[in-house]
Amino acid sequence: MYHKIITILFICACPLILISQTTSDSLEEKSLPTFFITESKPSFITTSRNIVSLTHSDMKEIGGQTLSDALSHLPGVSQLTTGPISKPVIRGLYGNRLQMNVGGLRLEDQQWEDEHGLGLSEVGVARVELIKGAAALLFGSDAMGGVINIIEEKVDSLDGQNRHFNYNKMQNLNVELFSNTLGVGVDYGFKQKTTHKNELILRGGVESHADYSDGNGNRAPNTRFAMYNFKAGYIIHKPRWTSENRFHTTYNQFAFIKDSSEINDIATEERWAREFDDEHHNVLYNILSSRNTIKIDEKTTWKATLGAQSNLRQEQEGEEETELNLLLNTISINTSIEKQLLDHVLWINGVAGMYQTNTNYGTRTVVPDAKIAEGAVFSYIKKAWYGDQITTHIETGLRYDRRNIHTFVTEELNNANSGMSAFNRAYDALNGAIGLSLLYKNWVFKTDLATGFRPANLAELSSNGLHEGTNRWDLGLPNLKTERCRNIDMSAQYQKNAWILRGGIFQNNFQNYIFIAPTNELFQNVPLFRYQQTNAVFKGFETGLEWKDKAIGQVSIDYSFLNARATDGSWLPFTPANRLLGKAKWYVPTSNRFHNTYLSFNATYTAAQNHISTYETGSPQYWLFSMGAGTVYKKMRFTLTCTNLTNKIYNNHLSRLRYVGIRDMGRNVVLNWGIQF
Fold it and tell me: Is residue 20 helix, strand or coil?
């Protein structure tokens, strides 16, 4: 009945895609000296979606090692980790239930396994916009728990520094040092605005870390990693045409522990050792995207994003032997027409398409060779009413998606005798959303009702093998049904002078929720795990209070609560513990030579997690503290952050290494130095 009511509302209204929802509604500027870029932070008050953003400076102040690590400091966001291998978790959902967008494209990087990390760095990232809740209407399949949009850097004004020239040019160098992992990161960027006002952006970076140590000083064997990044962008500005073209290539190496028998052997290596002689991932991916906007007339705009991606993932037991070797190639297109109708009415219609191939080259196969094709049509309308005291925005729409998965016989994985035959199957889904944003005096109210879907991935449908890093035999289920969800999100915010009170509740109902669970069986002397389906409900709330004065500082406290169960009442595995975040930042008065000088102190309380599934172990409560300081002197920026200040011995509930007795990272001092010239 619930689904029918939503569908009727969609049909009665004119439908949607939310390209417009990720644009900035207003800007909150940080006052920086003329040598440094002014950062802008969208407020998103005119959209019904629950969206938060994290700027590049925010990420540096947090002191995280990866982009996923930095995001985990936001309310309602956690990370699933296998040592340094990390992937974001939004309200208990991760992997193929979250969509990651880079350069306007959905990132295709084999996220179907728990130890396949996100592997992205904040190098060259201006900010990250995180959308919580189902967003299939906006972005298609896989966006059941949320979307993470990576906003790349552009050429910003130099505040008149080169006012006598017809171009702007800027270079910068950043160096980071990490005490716990003996890590170092360096990146260099060059940005120039040409005589035709076009923008050229180049950036390269490298980062290398040894194994980390826990709060007792015990080494976590084979948790080393290295990341290499190169980015290039060229943005063309014409009177009626803008074309943003990006190329991003990254090569990552992440070591991992397969089982506890390896720990003692690796721990005898030198503390500085960072060679990848034991089990590790090699991941090389390339992304080429072109985002084009053409102004047809004063009320009509055409947008098109075209892209190509390649993702080569290898898992090796040593330097010479390659076990898993997968190449995923993807081409995609998204195009839409935006039309301004009447007063304050925006109507968007478009189509999207994707084609990809998955090919095995290694000695072990876990998922088969396959071809996947996907197509979608969508329509969206947004209407605004401006009254004397109340401003209202309503947005609604529909989207139809169809995906075809064609698998091929791949060695012994799915031949005639395996019981896991190759198949050619199509999945389709109709999704929509309806949302309201209401501004009344100092209040902002939001309500969003949306559906989402996700066809089962290759691993869930066809896996039949031992996967390195898990020490288990995974067995897929070819007859899995399409996973669907219905999500409702309601929030309110009250702002009075320097005070902000915020809160929201959500409930995400899943049909045919797919998960992998252990069995009592052994296959080839390793535990057998099978994929299963059930209905499930994820529900909870987030609330916070903040005091903020641009001249003095800010203090905030946020609490996030999550309850995740199957409809039979059992708890779902890998559910993040409830968490309290406390942050304080004080701007220190300084002389004219120093700017943006601050001191910060953060405290995080993570509650005990005893709501666990079968064969899962609980986690005790713990506190973590961090401190930071920073300043800008002329053309140089300094940031010093100390995480896990008290050297706490602990395990996050979403740490997969806790099952082999490895604790999370101890105290880590991160020094960041940057210069612009």
Answer: helix
Q: Could you give the 3-state DSSP secondary structure of residue 609?
A: strand
What type of residue sits at position 438? L
Could you report the per-residue pLDDT of 182-232, keeping only the tens digit for each? 999 999 999 998 877 899 999 999 999 999 999 999 999 999 999 999 999
Joined tokens for residue 511:
């049909």
Pull the structure tokens for residue 574.
């890998």
Q: Which residues contact 163 (CB under 8 A, 6 or more apart)?
A: none
Q: Are strands 300-316 and 499-523 parallel, antiparallel or unpaired?
A: unpaired
- Give the per-residue pLDDT at 262: 64
Residue type, 354: M
Contact 145, 501 (CB under 8 A): no
Closest CA to 668 of 638, 650, 648: 648
Tens of pLDDT, residues 528-582: 888 889 999 999 999 999 999 988 999 999 999 999 999 999 999 889 999 999 9
Q: Which of 430, 446, 426, 450 is nearest to 438 (CA)?
A: 446
* Residue 644, helix vs strand vs coil: coil
DSSP code string of 523-566? ETTEEEEEEEEEEEEEEEEEEEEEEEETTTEEEEEEEEEEEEEE
- Which residues make beta-bridge pairs with 209? 225
pLDDT digits (tens, 9 = 90+) for 336-383: 999 999 889 999 999 999 999 999 998 888 889 999 999 999 999 999
Look at the domain 2-479+514-676 and name its fold.
Maltoporin; Chain A (2.40.170)
The encoded tokens of residue 281 equal 């991932």
d(CA 14, CA 396) in angstroms, rounded, equals 7
For residues 311 and 550, give the distance between their C-alpha atoms in angstroms, rounded to a whole number. Answer: 43
Report yes or no: 281 and 252 within 8 Å, Cβ to Cβ: yes
Q: 0.85 exceeded by the pTM?
A: yes
> CA–CA separation, 109 vs 87, rounded Å?
12
With the C-alpha atoms ordered 559, 145, 256, 109, is the resulting torsion angle positive or negative? negative
Q: What SS3 state is found at 2?
A: helix
Q: Where are the domains of the chain?
A: 2-479+514-676
How would you class 313 by CB atoms within 10 Å of its CB: exposed for 0-12, middle for 13-18, buried for 19 or more?
buried
**Residues near 160 by beta carbon (within 8 Å), at least 6 away in sequence:** 34
SS3 259: coil
- The letter for the amino acid at 22 is T
Other residues' Cβ atoms within 10 Å of the Cβ of residue 645: 17
